[in-house]
Design brief:
The protein is mainly alpha-helical. It contains 25 helices and three strands.
Length: 501
């Protein structure tokens, strides 16, 4: 599949759904109180519809090879993002948005908000951020777009067919990944006027998101000047793309006036210094390795870590050692990876039990067939981090690798009930059933995984395989029939919706 960065799809996609629209703008309320949006924003695109639209887009994003499924990265982004949300709980609004933060592999410095609380960050932005306050400033800005329901307000100012036009453009953009010509044809189908409205971005909306973002940073104890520093860096980076991309497609109008407005606001706030967490440095090292898995990319990462070691500060040394350990692990040099990880943990003392460091230790043990050691380590880590989804997945993998299959399936069924949107749990459950020789249950679990990632036809195929499995009993057949009817109705609705667009 063509890399998204080879044509302006990613930038155009963000321009459409990143809340950079021409909006009916109301004067901003005081920073302490977010304005309550009127009925105009609800009559066309309700919070439920907004969330559904975001989930549909996420289904396609998750299938893209540049979507980063790395568990430690996702866990860090969501823990960090929810720290910002919890600093100002009112940003969830009347809709009570359930925010989800994720990363895509893309060297372009950018972040974007999708409808319903999904916020994406480019890997290039994570590497460019020099402090957690800088990263927080970008995420807080995107949270501001979601909190103000900019997409809903844009759609609410138009007729119902604007919702269909928006969906058509999103469909066209996603189609462009495989066929640029086909995608362009879909987008041009009756959406010219609506497309122009989406591409005209609003400086007022950006200022509104800045204002809310600054209030989040202040409430969360971050350095608010990080917004000025990083947005200035984004402005410089945007100039590098101005020759290839028309200015109206750039997603954030980082004008001199806007930065001056941010500076004026932070002068009124008390300065506070925020100490970066070790996790921030470790995750950036991890992303540097994941950013480019070519031989050249790995050599560049190695050179960066060697240079980083010379900075001679504790966090930089730990991050560099960890980065080299993770790089060695990806190159399947497990002995070197383990030695470097031990050096990183020694340098991190007394924070040896850091979750990111522990995760790599478990991975190395699994790769070297030391399941008993891995099980002990993951059980100890779960006592310290009982809510970690990454550790939950690791625990299941260790149980499967240890051939403790009954324990694995019991644990994963419980996890599936608690976390119904976790596709990884269904994949692991399928692995456990496969190891037990339970073919019907294996393919039923795979069907649920495909449903969660938006592939209904693939899920129906898995159900058909499950029905024909030799061990499919009467109860299994009944479950398969009921689920198949449900998914067939859903697929029929999706096909009809596609025709309507």
């Amino acid at each position: 599949m063509t890399r998204l960065t080879r044509f302006p799809l990613r930038i155009l996609f963000i321009a459409l759904v990143g809340a950079c629209f021409t909006l009916p703008y109301a004067p901003a309320a005081a920073a302490q109180n977010l304005p309550t949006l009127g009925d105009t924003s609800r009559e066309t695109l309700s919070p439920l519809m907004e969330r559904k639209l975001g989930e549909e887009v996420m289904h396609d994003i998750r299938r893209d090879p540049d979507y980063m499924t790395d568990a430690p990265l996702l866990e860090y982004l969501n823990n960090f993002g929810w720290t910002l949300v919890n600093a100002r709980p009112d940003v969830r609004g009347e809709a009570g948005f359930d925010f989800f933060f994720f990363a895509v592999r893309d060297p372009v410095l950018n972040a974007f908000a999708l409808p319903g609380g999904f916020i994406g960050v480019h890997s290039g932005l994570l590497l460019a951020a020099q402090s957690e306050s800088e990263l927080a400033s970008v995420l807080a800005h995107e949270i501001g777009h979601v909190a103000q329901r900019h997409i809903a307000r844009m759609v609410g100012s138009q007729k119902q067919d604007s919702m269909i036009a928006l969906a058509s453009m999103l469909l066209g953009l996603l189609t462009m990944r495989g066929s640029p010509d086909a995608g362009a044809a879909v987008m041009m189908g009756g959406t010219g006027l609506a497309m122009q409205r989406q591409l005209n971005f609003s400086r007022d909306a950006e200022r509104e998101a800045d204002r809310i973002g600054l209030s989040i940073l202040d409430a969360g104890g971050f350095d608010t000047s990080g917004m000025v520093v990083f947005f200035g860096r984004l402005q410089t980076a945007s100039r590098n793309y101005s020759d290839a991309v028309p200015p109206y497609l750039l997603t954030h109008p980082l004008t001199t006036e806007r930065i001056a407005d941010i500076e004026a606001r932070i002068r009124e706030q008390r300065y506070r210094q925020h100490a970066d967490s070790l996790d921030f440095q470790l995750i950036r090292a991890r992303v540097r390795v994941l950013q480019d898995d070519t031989e050249l990319g790995r050599r560049e990462a190695q050179f960066f870590f060697e240079t980083q070691l010379k900075q001679n500060t504790k966090q930089q040394i730990v991050a560099a050692k960890y980065g080299m350990a993770f790089l060695a692990f990806k190159q399947e040099d497990y002995g070197k990876a383990e030695a470097l990880l031990e050096e990183a943990m020694a340098a991190a003392a007394p924070a040896r039990k850091n979750l990111v460091l522990t995760d790599l230790g478990i991975e190395i043990m699994l790769a070297t067939k030391r399941e008993a050691e891995a099980l002990k380590l993951v059980e100890q880590a779960q006592l310290q981090y009982p809510l970690s989804r990454g550790l939950a997945h690791q625990y299941a993998r260790v149980l499967i690798a240890s051939k403790r299959l009954d324990e694995a399936t019991k644990y994963l069924r419980e996890q599936a009930q608690l976390y119904r949107q976790d596709a990884d749990v269904q994949d692991l459950l399928a692995q456990a059933y496969s190891a037990q020789g339970k073919r019907a249950l294996q393919h039923m679990a795979l069907a649920e995984s495909y449903v969660l990632t938006g592939s209904v036809p693939a899920a129906l195929d898995q159900l058909r395989i499950a029905r024909n499995a030799p061990d499919a009993g009467f109860y299994d057949q009944s479950m398969i029939d009921a689920r198949e009817r449900e998914l067939q109705a859903r697929w029929k609705e999706e096909l009809q919706a596609s025709k309507d667009r």
